[in-house]
């Protein structure tokens, strides 16, 4: 072990030995809540897991008002969410690992799991943040314990299993923008060995983006529901839970905020025809003025069976079987103005089946192992229609038709279609083992082999008139067959894994160091529209991660201090290379990048009923080799990677006499500036944000019901959740965060 590690171990050990004496000088109270996680496929305290992980219990999720995946940015260091396709389709970034391709056909580098089922595609994500037991965010490459291999990490949503006692809960809320919310669950045993649980969520609100167009719908509405039914069978050797769920999101869609360029939104083209661009005159920064706000529709269906079978006193067989189906229809106005500069309709349809099978030992000795196998099959149909300047009569004949598209060079007054079918299969075997030695050390090692295949079929890209009459075949580029199609294939084999060591010098102190390799499969370009050269197959991503850290608790669990440092070598990151002068795009690889960072979490209970928390993330990203749009980007920062993130909270519980108690919580989240463009152009840089949320809940001592008042984004902070340079169209395309919201909820349990 290096000298600085020995010194750190000595300091931490000395502090731990002193805690008994010092704790006597502090008023005795309950310590920090312990959270049990299954990050390593075994139930254990989060403090015993030798990896960087943020775990949030159901109680914490409620107190922090986390109802959407986007809300996790307030609690997880170095975590960001890109909302290029709206709130229902989040793209996660963790420690600078992200993706810029927002095609509905892509799988991100941050895996998402619902009850251990991998949700690889946006069309099957649906609504998962209701009736949860906890959320776990794992950082760094995953693969020796998880069904899917990923480079950046995993977000695990774990729902409540049916229990064998009758009960339930219900929460009703009302807030700004006429927001009505309802969440609830009920469970009951059916027999001695069978229990069932039914949970739901409902959310409806008016749009918070005012639309000044006469008769136009306000944008960014909320209109959604989700239902999950679970049946559990349990006896001495089998614990089986079968879940079925469905969800629907069909609100009036988001409004794009176009930041005008020097000639105005659309100016570079409209000016050539003697027409003016738009400068958003008279609009507030959160307002739009467009007739083209349409309903977004995301529908999901899912079935899953999770079984733990005790084969013996020391061996357990776990099976996770799943079937998912989902569709996304996402029509957007790309400029937020009365002009017809650009608009798109994104459609995706996905079917996925997965099977994860693993054998876990529990020898109660020095050695244990996990051995598993994984299979997934994903079928996607994807279609995108994009329109450009469909209000320009190019030839001035009084009609906008195919002749205008031809005279407009296949761009102005045109509709561009791309459509394809995609199939991906993945087969893997994985293993993980631990060995305890010298009483205080644990050696951990894992290995994974993955075989991935991809087939792209029936790919076509056409230039069409406004009335959708085909004019040209762009891809594959046939001059004679307007409906010609093409195909692509890939096949990858990969071996990855990890090795690490833990050291526990004293109780409640853990030091660890890990080396791991992550892998993300090859991918097809889903953004190819204009030429065959855009239809690329990006090579697999690979990431080598070296990380060390510590987890400690002192003073009778009244102080918890965790920290980690890491260095990533990132190879062949997949990203969309969009030419702002032509809007042509190809999915390419960035050969080399480096990521270094550190995180520190501190939880303190200084006096009875007061809890203070803070988490800091430091991040430095740099491209070491690569180019985009013909420009060398060496030395540039990666996208969605703020250098500094901070979250802090204060939670205080106080008696109210005969009224019961009041729990008050204040949360602060801050992120420094970040780029949304690998070229690091100033017009794709957001200066950062600071969010302040608060909640006070009043309840009787028995805590069977409560009344809560809450506010989110108290200071009405304004920032961008996505930015794309669209200079050829005369603006920067952006999405923005919601304004200040507030409301009241009533909760009850029975």
Query: Segments where pLDDT lies below 50 for 5+ residues?
Result: 1-29
Q: How does the helix and strand content classify structurally?
A: mainly beta
Task: Kindly report the name of the CATH homologous superfamily.
Answer: TonB-dependent receptor, beta-barrel domain
Q: How can the largest sheet be summarized?
A: 22 strands, antiparallel, barrel
- How many distinct folded domains? 1
Q: What's the CATH architecture name?
A: Beta Barrel
Radius of gyration: 27 Å
Proportion of residues in helical segments: under 10%
Amino- and carboxy-terminal Cα gap: 54 Å
**CATH T-level fold name:** Maltoporin, Chain A
* Helical segment count: 4
- What is the C-level CATH assignment? Mainly Beta
Tally of DSSP β-strands: 41
Describe the structure.
By secondary structure, this protein is mainly β. It has a single domain (29-749), classed as TonB-dependent receptor, beta-barrel domain (Maltoporin, Chain A, Beta Barrel). The chain is built from four helices and 41 strands. It has a 22-stranded antiparallel beta barrel. A five-stranded mixed β-sheet has the order 3-8-9-6-7. Strands 15-40-39 form a three-stranded antiparallel β-sheet, with no helix packed on it. A hairpin with a 2-residue loop joins strand 6 (110-114) and strand 7. The longest helix is centred in the N-terminal third of the chain and has 21 residues, at 3-23. The radius of gyration is 27 Å and the shape is globular.
